[in-house]
Amino acid sequence: MNPFPPSSLHFLVVVFVFAMGWLTHPMQALTVESDFEGASVRVMHVDAGSQTVQFMPGGDPKRGWPCWWCFRVEGLDPRKPLTLQLHASDLPMPQANGVPSNKPLSADWAMPLRASFSPDGKSWKKTPLGVRAEAVMTYTFPVEGTSVLVAWGPPFTPSSAAELVRRVADSSAAAEERELCKSREGRTVPMLRVCEGDRVEARRFGIWVQARQHAWESGASWVCQGFTEWLMSDESNALWLRQHAEIYIVPIMDIDNTATGNGGKEALPQDHNRDWTEKPNWNEVAAAQTHIREFVKEGRMDVFLDLHNPGAKDTKAFFYALPDELVKEPMLGNRKRLFSLSRSEVGSVMPMMDGPKYDGPKYHPLWRQMSGTWVTMNGNPHTVAVCLETPWNIEQSTVEGYKAVGAKLGVAVQRYLEEGPKKE
Question: Could you tell me which residue ranges the Peptidase M14 domain spans (predicted)?
Answer without folding.
Answer: 154-412
